[in-house]
Amino acid sequence: MIVQPIDIRPSIDGIMDIKNTFKITTINVSRLNTTLKQEQVLNYMKINKISCIIVTETKLQTASAKIIYKEYKDITTLWSCDDDNYFSTGVAIIMNNDYAKYVIKKDIIKGRALKLTLLLKGKIRFTIIAIYNFSNNSYKDEILKFYMKLEEILTAEKKLKAKIVCIGDFNASYDTAIAQQRANRKIFWKDRIFQILKKNVMIDINLIYHDKPLNTWNRSDKKSRIDYIWVTENLVLDTIYASTNKVHIFETDHSAVTVYFQIDDLFHTKQLFKKKKHNNNNLKVDYKKIDSQLWETYAEKIEKLLDKEKDIIDNVEISINNINRIWNTIRDTFKKANNELPKKKGNPNKEVLPKTIKV
C-alpha cells in the first residue's frame, strides 16, 4: 500500500478519535459561572472522549466550584481559585475516574495553578501542571514570583524522575520569543516562562507534530498562540499526536489544545517481576504448524484490518514526528491478525530474543 502525502491541518472541527489513547485537553472557557456552560464543557469532554480536561479562567470562588459536577460519579474535579480576585483567575482539572484513581497528590497555587501527581503501574511518576498565567502585564512582580514557584516545582519533579506535562493558558507567545531570539534580541520578560521550561528539558508538543501550529486565541483585532502543552523529553515518545481545535459547543475566544498518549505506554505498563510471574501463561506462535494456506489467510486478515485503518495511516503529515502514531496502528493490526495463527505454550526459562537475526 502506497502512503499518499496528504497534509492534515493542525486544527480540525473535532478532536480526533484515535483508539486506545489518553487525551489531555486545555481550554480557556472565559468563565464557568453558568449552569449551561458547565454542562456544555462536560458534554464537550464526553463527546470528544477526553480523559482529562484543563479548564482555565473559570472565574469562580471556592464555594461555588466545589458544588459543580458534584452529582457526577464518573469524574473527579479539582479546583484552584482565588476568592479575592476570582474575576480574573481560576484553574480546574476534570478527570475521568478511570485515570483519577492513580492520583496520589495535588498541590495548589491559588487561582493560578494545579499540580496533580499520578503514580502509574511500573512506579512511573506522571505529573500534570495546569496553569493560568496573568493576562495583565502590570502584575510583573506577581508573574515573576509565579515563575519562580513553577521553576521550583519542575526542578523537584525532575529530581523524582517524573514525566511532566505543563499545560494551560500561558498568556505569553513562544512564537514571539523564538522570533526575538533569531533576531538576536532580548526576549520580553514575560516570555521567560519558556526559558524555564526549556531549561528543564521540556518541549512544545505541537511543534513536534506541526511546523506551524495554529493560533489558540482569536479576536477580530488580534491573534496569538498562547495556550500550550509542554512535555518533558522522556514523555515525547509516549505521545501519538497533538492538535488545535475550534470549540463550537460553547462560547470562547480560545481554541482547544490536545495531546494524545498511547494508553499502553503509560497506564498498562507491567513491572518486570509481574511479567516473569506470568511467563508460564504466555502463548507464542507455533511456526512449525503454519502451512502456505494458513499464511495466505493471515495475509488476507492483515490486509482487511489495514484497510479499516487506512484513514489513520494515509491522512497524516508524512514526517518522522508521526511515526509513533502510524507504528501503533500497524502494531495493533498485527496483534489482531496473530489470532489466526496456531499457538504453543512459551518456555519461561528460554531466552526471549534470538541469538542471531537472519536477514
Automatic annotation (TrEMBL):
Probably binds two magnesium or manganese ions per subunit. It comes from the Eukaryota. GO terms for cellular component: nucleus. The record marks 254 as: Interaction with DNA substrate. Transmembrane segments: none annotated. InterPro entries: AP_endonuc_1, Endo/exonu/phosph_ase_sf. Residues 339-359 are annotated as: Disordered. Keywords: Hydrolase, Magnesium, Manganese, Metal-binding. Mg(2+) binds at residues 28, 57, 169, 171, 253-254. The record marks 171 as: Transition state stabilizer. Its cofactor is Mg(2+); Mn(2+). GO terms for biological process: base-excision repair. One of its GO terms (molecular function) is double-stranded DNA 3'-5' DNA exonuclease activity. The record marks 227 as: Important for catalytic activity. This is DNase I-like protein. The active site is at residues 132, 169, 254. The keyword Magnesium applies.
